[in-house]
Amino acid sequence: ADDRFAPSLFGPDCHIFHLLPAAYYYAYKYAHSFEKGILTAVNSGGNNMSRAALTGGLLGAMGGIRAIPQRFINGLKNDKAAIPDGYANQGEYLMDLAKTVAKGKRV
Q: Residue 97 and residue 86: Cα distance in Å, rounded?
């Protein structure tokens, strides 16, 4: 079956009763591929932003930082207001932040 139609099964909106089952479905089905899971959630129509964000959170929690393709990190928009001093770009800052949190350190 074409997974882009999952929102038809679970509901296309961001209501929690529709959002959670769809995100859990994508996270389960694509546990082996962060990229495939995210892209399928994004391209499924409906309120894809919330569904893809939750799917990404679940897949990231399961696969860790290494599961996220480097091109996704490198492709982040470099908004100067979001980049603290000492970092070359937003991707570098977010990777450092994720590593700090993963070590149980306070931010």
A: 13
SS (H, E, C) the chain: CCHHHHHHHHCCCCCHHHHHHHHHHHHHHCCCCHHHHHHHHHCCCCCHHHHHHHHHHHHHHHHCHHHCCHHHHHCCCCCHHHCCCCCCCHHHHHHHHHHHHHCCCCC
pTM, 2 dp: 0.77
Query: CA angle, corner 104, sides to 101 and 106, nearest 5?
Result: 70
Counting every residue written for the chain, the total comes to: 107
pLDDT value of residue 1: 56
CA atoms of 105 and 25, how far apart (whole Å): 32
